[in-house]
From TrEMBL:
<feature type="binding site">
    <location>
        <begin position="418"/>
        <end position="419"/>
    </location>
    <ligand>
        <name>S-adenosyl-L-methionine</name>
    </ligand>
</feature>
<dbReference type="GO" id="GO:0005634">
    <property type="term" value="C:nucleus"/>
</dbReference>
<dbReference type="GO" id="GO:0032259">
    <property type="term" value="P:methylation"/>
</dbReference>
<dbReference type="GO" id="GO:0006355">
    <property type="term" value="P:regulation of DNA-templated transcription"/>
</dbReference>
<dbReference type="InterPro" id="IPR029063">
    <property type="entry name" value="SAM-dependent_MTases_sf"/>
</dbReference>
<feature type="binding site">
    <location>
        <position position="480"/>
    </location>
    <ligand>
        <name>S-adenosyl-L-methionine</name>
    </ligand>
</feature>
<dbReference type="Pfam" id="PF17285">
    <property type="entry name" value="PRMT5_TIM"/>
</dbReference>
<feature type="binding site">
    <location>
        <begin position="507"/>
        <end position="508"/>
    </location>
    <ligand>
        <name>S-adenosyl-L-methionine</name>
    </ligand>
</feature>
<feature type="binding site">
    <location>
        <position position="409"/>
    </location>
    <ligand>
        <name>S-adenosyl-L-methionine</name>
    </ligand>
</feature>
<keyword id="KW-0949">S-adenosyl-L-methionine</keyword>
<dbReference type="GO" id="GO:0005829">
    <property type="term" value="C:cytosol"/>
</dbReference>
<keyword id="KW-0808">Transferase</keyword>
<keyword id="KW-0489">Methyltransferase</keyword>
<feature type="domain" description="PRMT5 TIM barrel">
    <location>
        <begin position="38"/>
        <end position="374"/>
    </location>
</feature>
<dbReference type="Pfam" id="PF17286">
    <property type="entry name" value="PRMT5_C"/>
</dbReference>
<dbReference type="InterPro" id="IPR035247">
    <property type="entry name" value="PRMT5_TIM"/>
</dbReference>
<comment type="similarity">
    <text>Belongs to the class I-like SAM-binding methyltransferase superfamily.</text>
</comment>
Length: 831
């Protein structure tokens, strides 16, 4: 397999241009000119300034006791038209509305404007719209209007049935951030009886997860609608002291904890404004290291987000409609390329020369991103192997009841690490056997090795190679129950293995062990030709010295490795016999995985067992909810945006060593139960448990899918993806959190008065949602491995805990919520 350094994959950056105050309509000529500059898309306001002025005038001239109605759009209210260019546009909903307003009149007007704009955009064939950020602060009211914002989003998802809705959000919630529409919007016109604007001595605090909390309410209200996405604004203004470096500012804006959280959400758009860039020594705009690392991380997602450059300058030549616009292809002049990636702290100290240089590109921000696109680091082996499988749900194999196809074996055999490690383990075992002078069970002192579940024979090849490397003679047996795979084994034995392997067509649980014909010996005990068993020279079954298997699943034991090996362990050499692997341990940790939750929820109507199935999945868009304490901060020049380390706890273990004969008559000894506590520092939503394993093949040779140890024990191993135990929470029927529409001050223009919306109907049903975890809480995961002598399955439940402060001091631990019991018995592994 080629090394990552030879990976010729170049990610695709879809980059668009956005102007918050676009001065001219977006016509076919404008779109064509943008494409000539190497932009992929443009944003366009749905309505014009004329409509803006008309709505503000409606409010300013409003009788407080009247019910305002925003009339339908006219020709002067919009420049958007249904034509071919709409496929290249992201339509922008008016940023001056306030769907979170505590003033019912402003909320109603904003809601009407939203409905009118979405309906018209859908009529024009627009497929992507971006909504303005929910306004989280109104005087002393914090986050009070998010529910009504969410309700409005739910409504427009039913208005534009083919429209993808993107909610524009900052990465963190900074109450002191300046709103670019302040003074020209509806929010500033809120009446004082609804908004308390009195000054407060308490300084508002930055909430790292404040905007995520708002997003969680919106997407939960909309039932994880697959047409709802995040447009993440990475150009948030922040009030900072003059002596703060650019790097420190960007690190404050992009904390690693928040980066990890947004990484697991349905990101569709990343918005960069001119404030996100810093000049290098040539005066050329570049991103800080923090921004570059974040961009690289997000662009590795299975569906990488689009990039919007906001207010970085107009499209060149658009005013004069010049015949040619220079293309931003990322091929920067040498004087610029040499210094295009300095540290921001270095750039701040460098003289701003060449600022008016002839080398300055007309679209420097776009040209820089195109250059950054070409300089993306190569993918890892695991990323290359798993391309297309990220966050894709796969049902675990049933190797005991199903005969695998050749293509399945072929996929397993592509992993070079696993089989290399198996060969190391066999070689070390043979070397130790020879050095310690252990008595072997085979003829003439040959070590008897049995490969059980041999498949197409990769472990057989490795065992023969280890024998040759160590110079230790072996007698090799290959056991396989799949009759189709046995044909391949027999062919390999004839063409590759020189008939050195004893092929046995049998289930390992019913095999009696290595059976050989009677061995005839000469006067000096030399071995003669074997003959058939007779009453004087009967055949014999000999013990196995080394038992080799690759029966592990994503959770170690989920493909019934313990049950399969139970029948083989009594056949091991009672003095020195060993199993490869000799032991393995399962691990768990709670995760937030909204994409997986949405996928499982969409399958549930046709597959009722989907919420109770432990899924094999290459986890990518997830966030670890329980993490270790952050390390000591490093100097700014060395700081990097490293992800917090997850707490991944051991669940249970299985050990395989020689066992007395016969094998146990029941399977109760293979049941397990564990209860695992996890500390939760930051609020989040638990969608399930991620499972991993570590296995010791032979002392000193280990395999691991545990993210904490995989790099040290078996880096780049790709034979197993993690397992995901989905979580569901059952709430009894409860009243809708939204009042009936007749209780709102004014009726919705999209719904008949008194009608019940789809959102209200959803809330009146039994709700099954993930488990919300507040800051500084705890999670307890309880999981059991069960059996009824016919199959093996898992049961799991998650509890959340918090603390109540007691009068007189102290605190009491209280249960905040508990999930339904997940039970995979319906899809359990058959024995």
């Amino acid at each position: 397999m080629d090394s990552p350094e030879h990976d010729d994959y170049v990610p695709t950056f879809y980059i668009g241009q956005h102007e918050s105050k676009r001065s001219r309509p977006v016509t076919d000529d404008v779109v064509r000119r943008a494409h000539e500059c190497n932009y992929d898309m443009l944003t366009a306001p749905i309505t014009t300034s004329s409509f803006h002025e008309r709505v503000l005038a409606l409010f300013d001239n409003l009788d407080p006791d009247s019910a305002p109605t925003v009339s339908a759009l006219t020709m002067d209210d919009t420049d958007l038209m249904p034509d071919e260019m709409t496929s290249h546009l992201l339509a922008m909903v008016s940023p001056w509305i306030d769907l979170c307003s505590p003033d019912p009149v402003i909320y109603n007007i904003s809601r009407q404007v939203l409905h009118l704009e979405i309906a018209y955009a859908a009529f024009c064939g627009v497929t992507n719209v971006i909504l303005p950020r929910p306004k989280l602060h109104h005087g002393d009211l914090d986050g009070e209007g998010v529910v009504q914002y969410a309700y409005s989003v739910q409504e427009i998802l039913n208005i534009g049935m083919f429209v993808q809705v993107h909610i524009r959000l900052h990465m963190i919630d900074d109450p002191e951030a300046v709103d670019e529409n302040m003074g020209d919007d509806l929010a500033s016109r809120a009446r004082l009886k609804y908004v308390d604007l009195s000054p407060s001595d308490a300084k508002p605090k930055v909430d790292v997860f404040g905007t995520w909390d708002a997003w969680n309410i919106i997407r939960s209200t909309c039932n994880y609608n697959p047409r709802l996405f995040v447009a993440l604004d990475l150009c948030q203004p922040l009030l900072t002291s003059s002596n703060q470096s650019a790097l420190e500012v960007h690190q404050a804006l992009l904390p690693s904890r928040s980066q990890s959280r947004w990484h697991c959400e349905p990101l569709r758009v990343l918005i960069y404004s001119i404030t996100a860039f810093v000049p290098n020594q040539t005066g050329y705009p570049v991103l800080s290291r923090v921004h570059r690392d974040l961009l690289t991380k997000y662009m590795r997602l299975r569906n990488p987000p689009w990039i919007l450059l906001s207010d970085v300058g107009p499209i060149p030549g658009i005013e004069r409609l010049e015949p040619f616009a220079p293309m931003a292809d990322g091929d920067l002049p040498p004087v610029i390329t040499a210094d295009v990636f300095p540290l921001p702290s270095e750039a701040a100290k460098q003289p701003q020369k060449h600022k008016s240089s002839k080398n300055q590109h007309p679209t420097p921000h776009l040209d820089y991103l195109r250059q950054l696109q070409k300089r993306q680091p190569p993918r890892t082996v695991l990323e290359r192997y798993g391309a297309g499988f990220q966050d894709y749900l796969q049902t675990p194999l049933q190797p005991l009841t199903d005969n695998l196809e050749s293509i399945t074996y072929e996929v397993f055999e592509k992993c070079p690490v696993k089989y290399e490690w198996y060969e190391r383990a066999i070689a070390r075992a043979l070397r130790d056997w020879e050095e310690e002078g252990k008595a072997a069970s085979g003829p003439n002192g040959r070590v008897v090795i049995a490969v059980v579940g041999a498949g197409r024979g990769p472990l057989v090849t490795r065992a023969l190679r280890a024998s040759e490397t160590e110079g230790v003679d072996i007698e090799l047996w290959a056991l396989e129950k799949n009759p189709n795979a046995c044909v391949i084994l027999e062919r390999h034995n004839q063409t590759q293995w020189q008939n050195r392997v004893n092929i046995v067509r049998s289930d390992m649980r019913s095999w009696q062990g290595p059976f050989r014909e009677a061995i005839r010996t000469g006067p000096d005990n030399e071995e003669l030709m074997p003959g058939p068993p007779t009453s004087q020279l009967p055949g014999m079954i000999t013990p196995i010295d080394i038992l080799v298997s690759e029966l592990l699943g994503s959770f170690a034991d989920n493909e019934l490795s313990p049950e399969c090996l139970d029948g083989m362990l009594p056949k091991l050499n009672p003095s020195y016999g060993l199993s490869i692997p000799c032991n393995y341990t399962a691990f768990l940790t709670p995760i937030s995985a909204p994409k997986l939750h949405a996928d499982i929820s969409s399958r549930a109507p046709k597959d009722p067992a989907a919420p109770d199935t432990p899924w094999v999945v290459m986890l990518q868009a997830i966030d670890y909810l329980s993490t270790t304490t952050n390390p000591q901060p490093q100097p700014p020049s060395r700081s990097t945006a490293e992800d917090p380390k997850p707490n991944i706890l051991p669940v249970w273990s299985f050990i395989h060593e020689p066992a007395p004969s016969p094998a146990p008559s029941t399977n109760s000894h293979n049941t397990r139960q564990a209860r695992l506590p996890f500390r939760i520092r930051d609020r989040g939503v638990c969608h399930g448990l991620a499972g991993y394993f570590e296995a010791t093949l032979y002392p000193g040779v280990e395999l691991s899918t545990n993210p904490l140890t995989m790099g040290d024990k078996s880096a780049d191993m790709m034979s197993w993806f993690p397992i995901f135990f989905p979580l569901k929470v059952n709430f009894p029927p409860s009243p809708s959190p939204f009042p009936p529409l007749t209780a709102f001050p004014f009726p919705s223009p999209a719904l008949k008065p008194g009608a019940e919306s789809a959102n209200e109907r959803n809330w009146k049903r039994d709700k099954k949602t993930p488990l919300y975890l507040p800051d500084n809480s705890e999670v307890t995961a309880t999981i059991r491995r069960c059996t009824d002598e016919r199959k093996v399955w898992y049961e799991w439940v998650v509890e959340s805990w918090g603390w109540n402060l007691l009068i007189g001091g102290g605190k009491k631990r209280v249960r905040l919520g508990v999930s339904e019991v997940g039970c995979s018995k319906g899809v359990g592994c058959m024995m």
